[in-house]
Amino acid sequence: MAATQLQCRECAAQYPLEARYVCSRCFGPLEVGYEHEPMTDVGAVRRRIQGGPQNIWRYHDFLPLEGPQPQTRTGLPAGCTPLIRADRLAAKLGLREVWVKNDAHNPTHSFKDRVVSVAATRARELGFDTLACASTGNLANSVAAHGAALGMDSYVLIPADLEEQKILATGVYGTNVVKVRGNYDDVNRLCTELSGDRENWAFVNINMRPYYAEGSKTVAYEVAEQLGWELPDRCIVPIASGSLFTKIARGFSEWIELGLLDGDVPIMDGAQATGCSPVAAAFAAGADVCRPVKPDTIAKSLAIGNPADGPYALDLARRTGGCIDAVSDEQIRGGIRLLAETTGIFTETAGGVTTAVLAQLAERGKIDRDERVVLVITGEGLKTLDAVRDSFADYEVDPSIDSFEAVFGAPVTA
Amino acid sequence: MAITIKLPTQLRDAAGGAPSLQADGATVGDALESIFTQHGELRERLYQDGDLRRFVNVYLGGEDIRFLDGLDTAVPDGGELTILPAVAGG
């Protein structure tokens, strides 16, 4: 394993690679540090990656795990999702090259399978017998499914008012679904307290958070590999806690430093819903910390009012020349329709946020027409069906030609 | 006034291993000051430049004090404060 230690992002204190997420000196977040061998033959490294399994374990050299056989690390392989060139979407927005990274193609239909695969595998290596999480829904699906696949008990804690589809798609795996009467930030606070008392539980996004977050780097690795070992010019990524947003950039920068990619980290644009936009608000105000908010948006998977990685997301957007924008619930519904009607990809509300922010930035003239843009779609539309209910007309006819023609007219004869 | 302050595991070594401490004061800031007099290391862990560090959350009765009046938030007699790391979740 190339991972060598956990280190504090704030004060650089170092810790061993154990189940620990916060610096005991300054409370700063811990992240995984690596020491990679210098790469003398980049082509050989690229070929080895390309010869790896069709899932995130092809990148195991860049992930914080010990075992030598990545194929055996999980029964629910994530990643290697499609990157689709979206010419009709690009044309509609006046752009030339837009790609959609469709992470709804993961086993439980969201990018969360990447992070949970890494966290659950590391949890097993560290001897935990139970998985747990604080979730806005997609993480709940993934933790429950990974628990089932790995034979581990699991507890998923969610806000009680979550979309029914996400609750059903969690409970089916035989997990313990715990509906908390409160919002996500209340759930997160409860789980943070619980994690201190239950030492045999691996809370994937609390005490396992440094490992969990590393899984998001694989989005960047895949995009670069799918673009023929090239970097995009710009990525549009949704922001809830800010972890995915910052770790995608980290994935690119690691590979640039190692010589696997040539160029600069892309312009990183973050996408939030106006009804929960603490990071976008801080970006607009020029602040370097986020003021927490009480979420009120249909984009429940992004409804984190107190984002843990907010300061780092702000820094990243500014450093790369990007911005963090917010869109209304109406725009989110429009974004879902725009993506569906131009690409055939049906995304959940978070993807509506990301697509609507892309449209908004294009309209404002923020995106150069010649840029290569990657839109990161994190989840599946079937999980948030209410967002598209009554958004289109349909037709009801009797099973007869007359009835059909009464609506659509007679066929045109030559 | 008697206030209970619940400590996260990460802070307990700086408070003699105790999971919670008894404090006095009319506000959150005063209550924290009162525990710093007994356990001086806690100040350095929780504060930077006279304010709470940015990755420290303090809750009064389950509500983040940043939604209230911050360190000036009034604490009732018998109130309970909870200190937690802010870096969880997502």
Description:
With 414 residues, chain A is of the alpha/beta class. Chain A has helices spanning 42-50, 87-93, 112-125, 138-150, 164-171, 184-197, 209-214, 217-226, 243-258, 278-285, 310-319, 329-343, 349-363, 401-408, and strands at residues 3-8, 14-15, 30-34, 83-85, 97-102, 130-134, 153-159, 176-180, 201-203, 234-238, 267-273, 324-327, 372-377. A 6-stranded mixed sheet of chain A has the order 4-5-13-10-11-12, with helices on both faces. In chain A, helix 4 (138-150) links the parallel strand 6 (130-134) and strand 7 (153-159). In chain A, helix 4 packs parallel to helix 5 (164-171) and helix 8 packs across helix 9 (243-258). The model of chain A has no long low-confidence stretch (mean pLDDT 96). Chain B is of the alpha+beta class and 90 residues long. In chain B, strand 3 and strand 4 form a beta hairpin. Chain B is 23% helix and 28% strand. The model of chain B has no long low-confidence stretch (mean pLDDT 94). Chain B has a 5-stranded mixed sheet, covered by helices on one side. In chain B, strands 3-4 form a two-stranded antiparallel ribbon. The interface between A and B is medium-sized, with 39 and 26 residues.
Keywords:
heterodimer, A: 414 residues, alpha/beta, 6-stranded mixed sheet, 4-stranded parallel sheet, globular, B: 90 residues, alpha+beta, two-stranded antiparallel ribbon
- The H/E string of chain B reads EHEHHEEEEE
Side-by-side strand order of the widest sheet of chain B: 2-1-7-5-6
Q: Mean of residue pLDDT of chain B?
A: 94
| Strands of chain A, total number | 13
Q: Kindly report how far apart the N and C termini of chain A lie.
A: 70 Å
- First-last Cα distance of chain B: 37 Å
Which overall shape of chain B is indicated by the principal axes computed on the Cα atoms?
globular
Radius of gyration of chain A: 22 Å
Instruction: Report the helical percentage of chain A.
Output: 25-40%
**Oligomer state of the chains in this structure:** heterodimer
Tally of individual helices of chain B: 3
Shape of chain A: globular
Give the neighbour order of strands across the main sheet of chain A. Answer: 4-5-13-10-11-12
Question: Which consecutive residue ranges of chain B, at least 5 long each, have pLDDT under 50?
Answer: none
User: Helices and strands of chain A, in N-to-C order?
Assistant: EEEHEHEHEHEHEHEHHEHEHHEHHEH
The unreliable regions of chain A are: none
User: Hey, roughly how much beta strand do the residues of chain B contain?
Assistant: 25-35%
The two chains with the largest interface, and their residue counts, are: A-B, 39 and 26 residues
By secondary-structure content and strand pairing, the structural class of chain A works out as alpha/beta
Count of distinct strands of chain B? 7
